[in-house]
Amino acid sequence: MKYFVAIFALALVYTAITSGGRQRAVRAALRRRRRAASLLRKNNGVGNNKQSGEDPYDAQQDAKAARAEGDYLGRRRRNNDGGEGLAIGNAAPGWKFWKHLGGGGNNRRQSNVPTEHGVWSPNRRYKWIDVRQLPPLPGQEDMIDRSILEGGLGRRPEKRSAKDFRVKHAGEPPMPWEAEADDDGMERFTATSSAAADPGLAPDSGQRIAHHGRGITGGSSPRVDYTSIEYTYPPTISEPPAEGRYPFLETLGTLMTRWPQDELDNPPQPFLERLQHFDYNDPDQMAMALRFRDEELPFKVYNVPEVISAGMKWTDEYVSSQFDAFRRKNTKNRLLDAVLGGGGGGGGGNDNGGIPMTKGHCQEARMNFFSFFQPMNWATNALGPPPTMDNDWTYSRWAKHARYADKVGLDPTEQHYYWQAGIPREERLQPEDTWTFVSRDLPSFSSPEPTFFGFMPEMQKGIQCRFGERGVTAATHYDAGRNMVAMMVGAKRYVLSPPKACPKLGIVTRRRHPVFRHSLLNFGYLNLLDSDDPEVQTMPKEERAWLEVAKESMAVETILKAGEVLYIPSHWFHYITSLQKSAQCNTRSGRDKGDHPEHGGFE
Q1: DSSP label of 43
Q2: Which end of the chain is more exposed for a tag (fewer CB within 10 A), N or C?
Q3: What is the per-residue pLDDT across 532-584, written as a single tens digit (0 to 9) for each?
Q4: Phi (first) and psi of residue 563, to 5 degrees
């Protein structure tokens, strides 16, 4: 008993000591903040610590102390100027740091906690980037304090909560769109895939054809069904061309001028496909595809039976039974939810035919452009809300909104939603009767044995599925693994850029930065660069400079339609727009660390 008394006494002493220490730290932080503010005022808001005689280490300690007791010191201040600069004390003062933020003047008074990610133009027609997160332009790497990328914005925040990345809509009144959305049941897709219905419609030898994909019956039809528009395909070639002549590349500016990103009702027709298309049912063509895969070049495969079959099976009703049954069963089971994280199934259910249930979640953004990030590195106390938020929608509700988006064609500045799910890599090693519907319906992606699509199963990191609604655009990024992307439903526009384009795409290459591997540039704004519109002129000069560089980068575009599989080699960048309600899944097969002689690679 005496031991318990002693431990209890020690605990009380420790609490008293630490409590007093926190109070002293708060007071010290306030003093240091005032000291840093005074220093910056003396230097006209620039804070050149060399000229002022201030020791840079002391300045860094000032900033660290200001953070030490939580972000409430910064949260109590609000930005009255509409700017996006950091508050004093939130990073080491230094001319490079402030120059990157825009320097001097109003930055002295601006808050470190924006109320929203990015900056809307005056009439909310465009959303500009928070320029603090942009990497330095090519050739200007030494003009920025690396602490911004490595230990500043990219540092793990001291305080972080799940609510910083999640919004709840439960209990809210119905949203305005729900009154206009269709209520006549789930969307269904007919079994009229071009590959299955009429082999004569398959791409070959540059023939101009109408690609009749899945026609939609019931529910809402998209304004433009990209599975049914007219396409022109290149002649099939048996060997990859030498000297970088494949794929045919154009400047990103050319692609976006010919078909502006958000003009989804006016695609160029016939759409000119540049990538090779190989028939999965033709052994000779699959031998050709294997040579392109070995050369780390992008291509597409069509007539894939399991992808066609899954597309016919994946009605909203069927998919909802897999996701929403999990949600209903585990609404109050927070521990299970935390353990499963972004992806697994688990346990049988009564609502989905006994198939183990699958976990998915919905994301939302204030507009159609989704820039992704690493939550572990997103410091909400410095950067404010993240670019996207998870919400509590069911799949059924997401699908209803996606059908509505197809029906009316949302404005790019309206709220958009995105559904995603991940199947853990361990699932393929379990008995098949424990597999979730994705693994069951795409056996070539989930097989523990090598297949054409999953050719290095030991390196597989699971299956990722993305369900997009019309207009949703994912920022350009690269994946290290060799990527096979299957489209079961709908269509997406992919803009692919070779690895050597990296310096021109605004890619963040610092691992500790919250948007590592991604760019924040909205290529839909490339067509604004020559505009005299006063609202366009509010674009930050740093963002404009980056877009001018990106405009000259080289790329190739393709429309990935239901029933097709796209191969994206290691480190190739992809910028994706969902052209209509769509469902895709991808699996990766290890990393290629070599360098293609023309297109670049790992280095």
Answers
A1: T
A2: N
A3: 999 999 999 999 999 999 999 999 999 999 999 999 999 999 999 999 999 99
A4: 95, -5
Q: Could you give the CA distance from residue 488 to residue 405 in angstroms, rounded to a whole number?
A: 19
**Non-local CB neighbours of 540 within 8 Å, separated by 6+ positions:** 119, 128, 129, 131
Residue 118 tokens read as 């990015």
How does DSSP assign 424-439, residue by residue?
Answer: -GGGGGS-GGG--HHH
Q: Give alpha helix (H) positions in 151-241.
A: 176-180, 194-197
CA distances from 487 to 63, 88, 270 (A): 49, 49, 21
Q: Is the dihedral of CA 74, 79, 84, 86 positive or negative?
A: negative
Altogether, the residues listed in the chain come to a count of 603
- Residue 571 · residue 480 · CB < 8 Å: yes
Q: pLDDT for 107-150, tens place per residue?
A: 333 344 566 788 999 999 999 998 888 999 987 765 554 444 44
Whether 198 and 421 have beta carbons less than 8 Å apart is answered as no
CA–CA separation, 324 and 326 (whole Å): 5
Cis before 93? omega within 30 = no
Q: Which amino acid is at 80?
A: N
